[in-house]
Specification:
homodimer, Isopropylmalate Dehydrogenase, ten-stranded mixed β-sheet, two-stranded antiparallel sheet, globular, binds 3-isopropylmalic acid, cytoplasm (chains A, B), oxidoreductase (chains A, B)
C-alpha cells in the first residue's frame, strides 16, 4: 500500500513522551499490517518559540500541509504563560487550525467500563454514556476582530463573534453525517435566546434537518446543556456547537467520563486530512518523569487510521489492545486507584504493543 | 420599623405558585418579627406580552424602581418561544437587569446534606461543597451590538463582546468582598489565552488583588473551570466571571449540588437594592398542577432579608425552618426519592410556615 506521510508535532510538557509511545505503536502496525508510514517531526508550541521565535514556524506548517495527517502531542506551559500573544503556544494552536482549514473538532467522550470508578459521577448515571462533541473550530469569537479602545468607562476591550451560513452549514452537515453512523440523535447547542450568531445557527440547523429525516434533532441552550450533561449524560449521542461553547462543553463532557487521560480527538477539514491529538494538555507538572499516560495519544493514532486512512483493521487492533491491557488491570498514575501499583509511560506503551 | 416595599413579579409557568408560598412566608415574618412589608404586583414576561404587548411594561419597571427590592418568580414558556425578539420573555429579563443596573448575579451553590442523594455526583466528591458564583450581568456579549450582514460566505451574524475597566472593577471588587466574608478564596474565570476582553479582565483582577492580601486568588480558564467543578467542587469558594461564562458555569454548579429546586439567587447593583429569584425556570410542563417546589423562592426571600434589608434574624429563621421541614423528610416531587410520598406546593409552604 501507499506510504502515508504523518507530520509529528510533539510539542511541550508530556507531549514528546506520549507521542514517543504512539510512534512505537505506529511501527508495530507497519510490521503487523504491512501499512507504511513516513513520519517527519516539526517544532511547535513552546519549544518552537524557544528555538525559532514563533509557536508555528513556517517549516512546521509546510510539513503539515505536505502530510496526509498530523499527530500532535500537547502544547503550553508556565514558561510561556506571560509572553505576549504572538509568542504564546496557544497562538500556534489557533494558527495551525486556521491555516490547515480544520473547521471541525471531534471529541468522543467514551466511558471506559474498567475506569468507571475514576469518574466523579455515580456509575448508574454514567451507564451507557457514549457521546461525541462536534465543535466548530475556525470561527466565532476565537477568530473575530479583537481590539482595545478608550471609552467612557475607561479602557475597553472588544471581541467579535462572527458566523456565516457557509461555516455553519459545513459543520452541521458533518454532525448530521456522524449522527447517521451512530444512534441518530443530534443535539444542537446554542444561545438563541440571546445571541444573533446563535439565531443564525439555529436557522441553518433547521434548514438542513429535513435532509436527515432519520435523525432526531433537539435544540439545547448552552446553559441547559451544561446541566443536562450532568443530569442525563447517556441521553446524548452527537452534540454540535460553535467554537467557544464547544470548548467548554467538550471539556465538561470529557471530565464526566472519568477517562480524560484516555480520550482522543480529531480536527478535520474538507477531505480526509486531519490533525489528531489527545484531549489532555501538556501537564508540565509531571513532564519528564515518565509517568504520563500515553493511551489518549495511542488512541488518537487509531482515530487517524479510521478517519483519515480508512485502516479500520489496525484501528480496531489498537483499541482492542488498549482494552486488553486495561482489563488486565494495568494503570498509569492518573487512572490508578492504588497509586502505588501505577506503571510508567514506557511500560504502558510496551504492554499495548505486546497486546497488539 | 420602616415599611419595606417589595415589587412582586411572579411571571409565567410555576412562577405564580412558588411566589404565592413565598408571600405567605413574608406575612408570617411580619407577625413574628414585627417587620412590615408592602407588596405590589407587576406583569412581567410572557403574561405581560399577552396582556400588555411587551415583556417589560413601563409600569412594571416603575414599580420595581420605586421598590426596595424585587421578588421574581420565573418567566418564559413554549407559547412565546417563536416570537420575535422584542416579544420574548427573555428580552424582558435582560431589559430589567439593564434598566435596574443589576450588574451582579450571585448564586450560592449549596449542597443540602439531606438531599445529597439527589445529585448525580458521588457523595464523597460533593462533601464540603459550598460555593458562590458571582456573575457579571449587564455587560459582555449579552449586551454588545448584534446584527446581520451579507458576506462572502452568505448571510453573516455578528455579536460583540465588550467590557470596560469600570464594569470589571465593580464586579471583581464585589467578589473579593464576598470572599472576605467566607473562606477567602477567589477563582477568577476567563479565557485570557484567546479573548481580549478576558485579558483586560485578568489585568483588572490582578490590579485589584493587592487590596485584598488575605484572599487567595487563582485564575482559571473557563474550559478548565467546567472540568474542575466536576473534579473538585469543594475546592471552590467564590467564583467570579463575565456574563456568558457565568451563565454556563452557574448552571453547571447548581446542577452538581443536586438541589436545583432549592437554590436562590440575587441580582444586585450599587446600594442595597436587589432582585431575588429562584435559580430554576418556569417549568411550563408542571405549571398549574400544584406540585412545584416553592423552597428556592422562599429561600430567595431569606436572601433578600440578608442582602437588602439586613434582617438576619428573619433570614435565619426561614433557613432553619426549611432545614427542619427537609430533615423531617418532607419532599416535593422534584427532590423526592420516593415520588409516591411527594407533597404539593401549598403543603410544603404550609409546613415551612408552621416550622417558623
Ligand atoms: C489552548 C486553547 C486555545 C484551546 C482552545 O480553547 O481551543 C484548548 O482549550 C482546546 O480546547 O484545544
Ligand atoms: C433566559 C436567559 C436570557 C437568562 C440568561 O442567559 O441570562 C437565563 O439563562 C439566566 O441565567 O438567568
Amino acid at each position: 500500500s501507499e506510504v502515508k506521510k504523518i507530520a509529528v508535532v510533539a510539542g511541550d510538557g508530556i507531549g514528546p513522551e506520549v507521542v514517543g509511545e504512539a510512534l512505537k505503536v505506529l511501527k508495530k502496525v507497519e510490521e503487523l499490517f504491512g501499512y507504511q508510514f513516513e513520519t517527519e517531526h516539526g517544532l511547535f508550541g513552546g519549544i518552537a518559540i524557544d528555538e525559532k521565535g514563533t509557536p508555528l514556524p513556517q517549516e512546521t506548517l509546510d510539513l503539515c500541509k505536505n502530510a496526509d495527517a498530523v499527530l500532535l502531542g500537547a502544547v503550553g506551559g508556565p514558561k510561556w504563560d506571560n509572553n505576549s500573544k504572538e509568542l504564546r503556544p496557544e497562538t500556534g494552536l489557533l494558527g495551525i487550525r486556521k491555516a490547515l482549514g480544520l473547521f471541525s473538532n471531534i471529541r468522543p467522550a467514551t466511558v471506559f467500563d474498567c475506569l468507571k470508578e475514576a469518574s466523579t459521577l455515580k456509575p448508574e448515571v454514567l451507564e451507557g454514556t457514549d457521546l461525541i462533541v462536534v465543535r466548530e473550530l475556525t470561527g466565532g469569537i476565537y477568530f473575530g476582530e479583537k481590539f482595545r479602545r478608550e471609552g467612557a468607562g475607561g479602557e475597553e476591550a472588544v471581541d467579535t463573534c462572527v458566523y456565516n451560513v457557509q461555516e455553519i452549514e459545513r459543520i452541521v452537515r458533518q454532525a448530521f453525517d456522524i449522527a447517521m453512523t451512530r444512534s441518530k440523535r443530534l443535539a444542537s447547542v446554542d444561545k438563541a435566546n440571546v445571541l444573533e450568531t446563535s439565531r443564525l445557527w439555529r436557522e441553518v440547523v433547521n434548514r438542513i434537518a429535513p435532509e436527515y429525516p432519520e435523525v432526531e434533532l433537539e435544540h439545547v441552550l448552552v446553559d441547559n446543556c451544561a446541566m443536562q450533561l450532568l443530569r442525563r449524560p447517556s441521553s446524548f449521542d452527537v452534540i454540535v456547537t460553535e467554537n467557544m461553547f464547544g470548548d467548554i462543553l467538550s471539556d465538561e463532557a470529557a471530565m464526566l467520563t472519568g477517562s480524560i487521560g484516555m480520550l482522543s480527538s480529531a480536527s478535520l477539514g474538507e477531505g480526509s486530512f486531519g490533525l489528531y491529538e489527545p484531549v489532555h494538555g501538556s501537564a508540565p507538572d509531571i513532564a519528564g518523569q515518565g509517568i504520563s499516560n500515553p493511551i489518549a495519544t495511542i488512541l488518537s493514532v487509531a482515530l487517524m487510521f479510521r478517519l483519515t486512512f480508512g485502516y479500520h483493521d489496525a484501528a480496531q487492533a489498537i483499541e482492542d489492545a488498549v482494552k486488553e491491557v486495561l482489563d488486565a488491570g494495568h494503570r498509569t498514575g492518573d487512572i490508578a486507584v492504588d497509586k502505588s501499583k501505577a506503571i510508567g509511560t514506557t511500560a504502558m506503551g510496551d504492554l499495548i504493543i505486546a497486546a497488539l
